[in-house]
Please model this.
Amino acid sequence: MDAMRERIAARLTRARERSDLLTALEDADLTSQVSPLMSPLVWDLAHVGNYEELWLLRAAVGAAPLRPEIDGLYDAFEHPRSTRPTLPLLPPEEARQYIRTVRSMVLDSLDGLREDRLFLYDMVIQHEHQHDETMLATHQLRKEPSGLPEPEADVTEVTPFEPERFVPGGPFTMGTDDPEVYDNERPAHVVDVAPFFIDTVPVSNAAYMAFIEDGGYENERWWHPQGWAWKQAKQAKAPAFWFREGVWLRRRFGTVEQVPPDQAVQHVCWYEADAYARWAGRRLPTEAEWEKAARWDETAQRSLRYPWGDSYLPGRANLGQRRLQPAKAGAYADGASPSGVRQLVGDVWEWTSTDFHGYPGFQVKPYKEYSEVFFGPEYKVLRGGSWATDPVAARGTFRNWDYPIRRQIFAGFRCARSL
Model:
């Protein structure tokens, strides 16, 4: 148990160090709202502390509430993001003091850590990292330079690759019975998938530029009817944050730079991804196809936790904010799945064609507002994580979801085709 307590404490500390980095701003920057799509950063800051108090102090150890009067302010389901600036939120310094107090009490309580409560600790750690990625999206929407430290340029070797890989048909085990994962990843169940081809790497900026240059945004034939209506209303002509001045430029964390042609395209919505796939004579993969390409080992006849195996290995994927952008297409060859598909984890979240729903036998754990309330055709599933995703939320079964019009998230895609 001592090793387990040390592991939990270290993971809590690492998540908080990241949150502190992303909120090391002047008070005015923390309290302002850069877009109705996002909360003020000070809301996210206090929210992660309130969530931690609810689950690791009140639920896990039965502690009395510290600030019960603020619970409603930081309930993500009670107040939409667009209205959060109007709430009487804790000022930045008070928010910092509150989350420090919560964290100190949580660390003190680890002496009584029970093994049957481990899921709650893992859930809270993942939750904070997920909000850290959300805060990065907020930083990207700001016009001013973020001030975030820019890691050194990626030196991962890019090796030759075939454009697509074949994935044999047949049954495979989708999902997991791991008790420490989110409810929407469970239970493990067998899915029979027809044989298909899938892109070896995500669609690159250069490939997406070809779609634009060929009039992809002007030709209704490539677009889902709702996507065409969105494009017309939005007057979209390129991915979010792109603009053209002779060459394609992008604004990345407040800095304008030329779009790197060999990186995975990001900040595209589902409708844009779907239109590109139609233009290319292909389609978006289903969620089951994506997971089979990512996890299934045909030789061993079993599903892996990660594309490269059952243990997380640093250096196999672009994860954890180690860079502030995707890597080059074709990088991380040693992180390929048994099918030979690369960069399935990290770089960009990947849109699939699948609506978000529960697996057969789905059971809520520990609360229905995490997954169940979002089930339905309004949301599309994304898989794989992005460069901004922490490894704790990058296993091969992890499921993300969002509206098909969302572009502020770090999302891209790859294509597939049937035989």
About this structure: The chain has a mean pLDDT of 95. Residues 224 and 271 are 7 Å apart (CA to CA). The longest strand covers residues 349-356.
